Amino acid sequence: MKKITIPEHGQIKLWRRKISPPEATERIAYLEERLYRRLEKYEQHLMRNGQPVFTWYSDYLKANQWVGVVQVPGLQVEILPKVDTLSQTENGDDDQWGESRRNLLYMLAVAGDVPVRSRDISRLATRRAPLNETLSALFANSLKDELLRGCERSYVRHEQNLRVFKGHLLVGQQLLKNSAHRERFYCRFDQFSEDTLMNRIFKAACRFLLDVTRLPGTQDALRHCLLLLDEVKSVEVTDSLFAKVSFNRQNERFENLFHFCRLILGNHAPTVSSGKDRSFSLLFDMNKVFERFIAAFMHDRVMPNIPDCKLYPQAIRNRRPLFQNDDNRGELLLEPDILICHKQNPDNLIIDTKWKSGKVSSGDLYQLYAYTQRYCCGQSVLLYPLVPGAKQRDLHVLDENNLQCGRRVSIRFVNVNRDLYKVIERKLLASELEMLVREGIGLAAGVIA
Question: Are the beta carbons of 117 and 109 closer than 8 angstroms?
Fold first, then answer.
């Protein structure tokens, strides 16, 4: 199987010549027409939330904001966040994508997009395996550990034609099926069992990953999981099956694993292709990953240093409408990425994350103006990942007299182009974000309010 790695917004060019295509550069890879057309044919399965993963041109394609892995028979494409420097592996070899892959894994773990805690994937930080292999290994080992603690068990409803009476008699079915068999009872009853919807989804995910992973250790872990789920029925997973699963204190330990199953089996389920290789995709929207990572990282590592402030991701329980209609109902509910409120300071802070190069659009500014006015913010921040040449700016809001009213929209940058597995780098990132919060709320730097 041919394996290529490109950065987000990187290109794959069609190579029609009979000689072998040239080696890939940092942003451009080449594919012979046979593999290029297979990838093009799989495009219909790659839509995410109505958005294409690739933008297609006459003889090349360009990756959008999605990162992860796309596989078709004979080809595996890994898309990673772009980094500006090469990494050094332990044996001294240059690994062009090592740091990018490690940082993405860390961000996914902190953001809650993979079923494992960030500190538990440090042992995999130096692996050079493709992203999908690492994530499959994380899922398999985490699920095995949880299943060894005990499978989920609950009361499962059954309807069966029995020789003994059990539960409730279904009169209609009894008359239909047993009019000539008075020794039978068509009953509905609940039975405490491990054959639950959640376990059926876990079994389907294990079977699927067993077909696409190539690492013996991961395959062994998946087979162990299937052995532990031997009493669970094999079913075809549909969107409606996911919607029927609910969580409580007894099964909440499986929640992250369940969400990972939704990712690989849910709305855009991979498809089986002819031949030994299976077509599938495991993709993440970097806009959402960056947003959730910053919110979770700040909640854990920044807000404890500012105890009088509280962080609300997506302004949960604090969403405000921009308008009110004639029926006194709110219209256009605002959902900023991060809302930070201070107990004594009446001015709030809005942080809106944007995973792009730092070029500010008019739509972004209109959005931040609405946030600033509606949430009474002294400062609202458009937060971008740091790129070379980036410069922070402040745009002051004007009143009806064309004078500065004291509120501003700021363009700020945070450096995530660092080895986030190093403690010192995480401390530096936390320090940058803490300074950003203190500036926005109006607190003295380094002073705990």
Answer: yes
Are both 175 and 246 inside the same structural domain? no
Give dist(CA 179, CA 224) in Å, integer.
46
Together in a domain, 310 and 398: yes
- For the segment 434-449, the average pLDDT, to the nearest whole number, is 74
Angle at 288 between CA 427 and CA 324, to 5 degrees: 115
* Contacts within 8 Å (CB) and 24+ apart, 97-101: 97/5, 98/126, 98/128, 99/419, 100/7, 101/131, 101/134
Residue 93 and residue 276 in contact, taking contact as beta carbons nearer than 8 Å: no
How does residue 112 score in pLDDT terms, banded at 50, 70 and 90? Answer: confident
Residue 244, pLDDT > 80, answer: yes
pLDDT above 80 (res 88): no
The CA distance from 8 to 66, in Å, is: 7
Report yes or no on 126 lying in a domain: yes
3-state secondary structure of 115: coil
* Residues 186-229: tens digit of each pLDDT: 998 887 788 889 999 999 999 999 988 888 999 999 999 999 99
Torsion of Cα atoms, 396 then 401 then 402 then 406, to 10°:
-10
Is residue 223 within 8 A of residue 250, CB to CB? The reply is no
3-state helix/strand/coil string of 242-294: HHCCCCCCCCHHHHHHHHHHHHHHCCCCCCCCCCCCCCEEEEEEHHHHHHHHH
For the chain, the helix, strand and coil percentages under 3-state DSSP, each to the nearest 5: 35, 25, 40
Q: How far, in Å, CA of 88 to CA of 98, rounded?
A: 8
182 and 227 together in one domain: no
Specify whether 141 is located in the same domain as 162: no
Name which of 95-104, 195-204, 338-347 the model is least confident about: 95-104
pLDDT tens-place string over residues 50-60: 788 899 998 99
One domain for residues 98 and 240:
yes
What is the mean pLDDT of the segment spanning 424-441? 93
Give residue 94's pLDDT band: very low, low, confident or very high (50, 70, 90): very low
Helix locations, 61-196, DSSP H: 98-111, 131-149, 171-177
| Whether the Cβ atoms of residue 376 and residue 383 lie closer than 8 Å to each other | no
Kindly state the tokens that stand for 203: 């079994």
Looking at the structure of the chain, the number of domains it has is: 3
pLDDT of residue 449 exceeding 60: no
Give the chain's mean pLDDT.
85
Residue 214: domain span: 2-150+197-286
For 245-257, b where at least 16 C-beta lie within 10 A, e where not — what string? Answer: beeeeebeebebb
